[in-house]
Structure formats: structure tokens, C-alpha cells
Write a structure and sequence with these properties.
Elements: E1 6-15, E2 18-28, E3 32-37, H1 44-51, E4 59-64, E5 67-68, H2 75-78, E6 80-83, H3 95-105, H4 112-122, H5 138-150, E7 156-160, H6 168-181, E8 186-191, H7 194-200, E9 203-208, E10 211-217, E11 226-231, H8 237-241, E12 246-251, E13 258-263, H9 269-278, E14 283-288, H10 292-301, E15 308-309
Parallel strand pairs: 3-8, 3-9, 6-7, 7-8, 10-15
Antiparallel strand pairs: 1-2, 1-4, 4-5, 9-10, 11-13, 11-14, 12-13
Length: 310
């Protein structure tokens, strides 16, 4: 078996005398998206900063492509793409200028224009490539932030709350983009929003008080997932049956616009969300119905369970 792109071995970090991450062990392979979940203060951002090479671990080892990050710090520049919660953007630059600048920072001086063009295409920024970043919407700024993280084609992409502050349509587009990037890269996505994880991720790891409490797969159930979907437009069961990924649709009593949707076996929540938006239903909410992940997350957040192996 090939070595994972990212491997954390008993990684810990002490800040201001307090251990905020404790003996964390994780692995992520190419073609895989790992969702890093936890309430605020669980240690997610600290973990991502260590993975990205911004913060050194106090204990343990982080390996990228089999090499110790502390012994080969150039990996943080060459092999890792990092999008912090607040994207490091230059409002006075046009999108294309900024991405060419980022490409040069990553050592692509002779190929900066081609690298920027590739990132612009992958992130759907063609229509705004000549506009100033400061004049863009929040959704487009997040896309630019993601583009700077992939402009040098890193093997590992680290994303900290990439959908924070986005409206539902913007968040949907960003999820689709992350899901697409996951085919060619190893991705670690930190969030406390369960729908982001369900839509984007192959596996999930839940942190609480700096410790790994749960790790498991998010593969769809064989009989299809059950979702709750709220739409603005009046729709009927025939409208839902027209969507190829829907196996059954039931209205939720006494709540206009809210539906219980069972997906076809193997269908994904992101595919349903894209179809709802394309049909103009007016997507307002999409979440797992009686989600086992939600149950585990809430139990861990309440301190009711210890580490769970999946």
C-alpha cells in the first residue's frame, strides 16, 4: 500500500501552558477528503496550522509524502496548500495578478501565468479574473482563497472553515468545488457544520478538548440516505420524483416547504443539492435526517462518550 500523503503520529501542541492538542494520530490518502469536526475550541484550527507548517508541534511527528515536516520545512511551501479561515488576500490586486504573485511565491516564476490560469479555471473565476479582489462578493473571495491554495498543485490541501459566512448557494458551489478537488488531492477540511462534512467528505474525525474522539467513514448507506430539505418554491411529489437521485419524497406535516427525501442507493447529498438549485426550487436547508454522525457529534460535545473507533 502506498504511503499516505499526510500522517500524524501522536501530535500534540501546548499553548500558554495549556495542551490544546493531545496525541493526535491521523492519516489521509490522495483522493480522500477528511472532515475535521469539533465545537469551537476543540483544537481544529491549531491542528490545521500544524499540518500546514505554520505552527510547530510540541510533540509527535507530521509527515507529508513520507517526509518529516519539521526536518523538511520546504514541504510547507511546495507540497501543501493552506486556506485559513480568513483568506490571505490582497484587495488592491486583480484576481489574475494575485494568483500569479502566489505562484511566484511557490517557486513558479517561469510558469506563474500558466499556473494562475489553471487555478482560475478549476475554481470558476474566469468571469472575475480581471476584477479587483476587494470588489468581489464573499463567495468569490473564498474561491480566490482556495485558488491560491492550489495554484502550485500541492498534494495536500488544508482548509479551515472554507464556507464560513457564505449564503446557501455560495456554500453549495464551494462544496462542489472541494468535492471535485478531492479526486486529485488529499484534503483536510475543518468545520463545525455537519452538512459541509456530509456533502464533501469521505471520512470524518471528531476532536474534543484536543483529543481524537471519533474517526469513521461517511460512505453512503446501501439503501440510500434520508435527508430533510427545505425549499422556498411550492413543489409536489412529482417534482421530486423527476430528480434521478430521489427514491421517495414525503412532506413534513405542519411545515410548508420542508420535505423528507430518501436518496437512491449510492446517491449523494451534494448531487441532490445541485439538482434542487438547478431546478429553481429555492434551496434553504439540507441536512441529514436522524444522522448517526449528528448523534455521535452531539454526544461527544456534551462529554458523554470517549474515543470511538469506526
Amino acid at each position: 500500500m502506498d504511503a499516505p500523503v499526510l500522517a500524524l503520529d501522536k501530535v500534540g501542541r501546548v499553548l500558554a501552558g495549556r495542551r490544546v492538542v493531545n496525541e493526535l494520530c491521523l492519516k489521509v490518502a490522495r483522493g480522500e477528503v477528511l472532515g475535521l469536526l469539533g465545537v469551537n475550541g476543540a483544537g481544529k484550527s491549531t491542528t490545521l496550522r500544524m499540518i500546514a507548517g505554520v505552527l510547530a508541534p510540541s510533540t509527535g511527528t507530521i509527515r507529508v509524502d513520507g517526509k518529516d515536516l519539521s526536518e523538511h520545512p520546504e514541504l510547507a511551501r511546495r507540497g501543501i496548500g493552506y486556506l485559513p479561515e480568513t483568506p490571505p488576500l490582497h484587495a488592491e490586486l486583480a484576481v489574475g495578478e494575485f494568483l500569479e504573485f502566489c505562484a511566484r511565491l511557490h517557486g513558479l516564476a517561469g510558469r506563474s501565468r500558466a499556473a494562475a490560469a489553471r487555478a482560475i479555471e478549476r475554481c470558476g473565476l474566469g468571469e472575475v479574473r480581471r476584477r479587483l479582489i476587494g470588489a468581489l462578493s464573499k463567495g468569490f473571495r473564498q474561491r480566490v482563497g482556495l485558488a491560491q491554495a492550489i495554484v502550485h498543485e500541492p498534494g495536500l490541501i488544508v482548509l479551515d472553515e472554507p464556507a464560513s459566512g457564505l449564503d446557501p448557494v455560495q456554500a453549495l458551489h464551494l462544496r462542489e468545488l472541494v468535492r471535485g478537488l478531492g479526486a486529485d488531492h488529499a484534503i483536510v477540511l475543518s468545520t463545525h457544520v455537519l452538512p459541509d462534512v456530509l456533502a464533501c467528505c469521505d471520512r470524518v474525525a471528531i476532536l474534543h478538548e484536543g483529543r481524537l474522539r471519533h474517526e469513521g467513514s461517511l460512505a453512503p448507506a446501501a439503501d440510500g440516505a434520508v435527508l430533510r430539505v427545505r425549499v422556498a418554491k411550492p413543489v409536489g411529489q412529482d417534482d421530486w420524483r423527476d430528480l434521478p437521485m430521489v427514491a421517495a419524497a414525503l412532506p413534513v406535516a405542519h411545515d410548508a416547504g420542508l420535505w423528507q427525501i430518501r436518496l437512491q442507493a449510492g446517491a449523494t447529498a451534494s448531487a441532490l443539492a445541485a439538482a434542487v438549485v438547478a431546478r429553481g426550487f429555492g434551496l434553504e436547508e439540507l441536512r441529514a435526517e436522524n444522522s448517526a454522525l449528528e448523534d455521535v457529534f452531539m454526544a461527544i460535545a456534551a462529554g458523554e462518550t470517549e474515543a470511538v473507533a469506526a
